[in-house]
Amino acid sequence: MYLLNQFWAPRKVYNPCGMFTYGHIVLLLIAMLILSILLLNSRKITKSQIKNLTKVLSVFITILEAIKIYFNFYYGYTWINAWFPMSYCSLFIYALWLSGYGKGKYKKMGEVFIAGVAIVAGGTYLLIPSTSLTMYPMWHYLCMYSMLFHTLMVYMGILYLWKKEIKLDIKGYRMYSIFFLAFSTIAIILNNVFESNLMFLKKPSTIPVPLLHTLYNNTKWGYTFLVFSVYLFIPYGVTSYLSRAIKKAKLNRQNDCDKEVIKLS
Question: Packing angle between helix 47-74 and helix 141-158, nearest 10 degrees?
Fold first, then answer.
């Protein structure tokens, strides 16, 4: 009964789960277990199956997001930052729809976001869950949804990168940049109009990085510029670099094996 009461409780009724706590570690381990099971069952997944999975997940996650929005309005949390799906990771929802149902450049935008950003962004949140877990108890709907959401981000990022083989080249980066710039522009406008903090572009809030808080206290626009730049360059750049490094290592290993076979023959 205690767990059921937590599931749909308003803010400040129960102590929040928090970051780097026992509750966070438990949810993280559950997320890793789910991710492992998904990847294990996806070893032989085909590109057409990934496409169908993308379509299904776009609808499934949108429904879960709608429940989140309903929860916030139900308890009167109607300020835009509480319910509007415009965090950096929330772009995953739009990317799923574009990749699953879009065509041409719009489809490409969705694909490169999922392949080039989802692993780093989703993984970062799982390690540093700076939103729902700082406000709600461990077994709350929003905490469990947040952890599942970002687990699915990592999962789909892996599928797109290594099964669908989306190329993370300069052309792909341009498409990602257009996609991100469009949404970040909307976020900045809404932040200034409604005094919100979409994408954490206005202030660091609960992000546990002292440097960001120091920068914000000294120069607010400097903080916004830094976070904006991190979003624009780091996730895609890190994923692209690691992807190339892994592929190169596999190729070198394969070449070494081929040389050994030639010597033996």
Answer: 160
